Amino acid sequence: MARKPDWLKPHGAPWIRGPGRTVYDNPWISVTEFDATAPTGRPALYGLVGFKNHAMAILPIHEDGTVTLVGQNRFAFADYSWEIPEGGGPLEEDLLVAAQRELREETGLIAAEWREVMRMQLSNSVTNELAVCYLATGLSQADLTPEGDGTEDIAIARVPFRDALDAAMAGWILDALTVAMLLRGYHMAREGALPRELAEAMLG
């Protein structure tokens, strides 16, 4: 592993958390309000959204360089979103097991090879949500149909990797995990971190 460069070292004092009060709680998130002290020494009232699941994201790449995406209506922005398969894994659950389940439930796919390629803090100013991102290859269709979680009406599309990447770069795909993982896949293909035949199929 490469040595972390000196410019990545932190500076100054950390935030100090004082007493916290839970102001909202449901099976997926909690909101806690803290009396805190900022790195500058200034008192602050800080609201933190705590997540009870890891965010799981899977980039499934087929041997021919295509990727499987899922489309669905999303609540927060009241819009339609094309994304890589994503979901939540309980904090106590094995990360790989959670990722395998999400891929199978949303797409009906199983993968022979799994590789964790990235972790992301999704909005670290107000939440503690951590995303764990996998590359899945050696794909085959399981003997089941995609399930969803009872609230999801999912469409599935298998598209060339470059088409998906171009859609993200054009701003037609806005989901942060999808954009990040498409760029990660592109970087891996360009830098020789994937088998040559697969990289060539992805890059066209």
Description:
This protein has 204 residues and is α+β, with helices and mostly antiparallel strands. 22% of the residues lie in helices and 42% in strands. The protein is built from 4 helices and 10 strands. The protein has helices at residues 95-107, 161-169, 176-190, 196-203, and strands at residues 16-25, 29-37, 43-51, 53-60, 66-74, 79-83, 86-90, 109-121, 130-141, 155-160. The strands form 3 sheets. Strands 7-4-9-8 form a 4-stranded mixed sheet, sandwiched between helices. Helix 2 (161-169) packs across helix 3 and helix 3 packs across helix 4. The longest helix is centred in the C-terminal third of the chain and has 15 residues, at 176-190.
In short:
Helices cover 22% and strands 42% of the residues. The chain is α+β, with helices and mostly antiparallel strands and 204 residues long.
Seen as an oligomer or otherwise, the chain set is single chain
Class derived from helix and strand content: alpha+beta
Integer average pLDDT:
95
In helices, the fraction of residues equals 10-25%
Helices and strands, with pairings:
Layout: E1 16-25, E2 29-37, E3 43-51, E4 53-60, E5 66-74, E6 79-83, E7 86-90, H1 95-107, E8 109-121, E9 130-141, E10 155-160, H2 161-169, H3 176-190, H4 196-203
Parallel strand pairs: 4-9
Antiparallel strand pairs: 1-2, 2-3, 4-7, 5-6, 5-10, 8-9
Helix pairs in contact: 2-3, 3-4
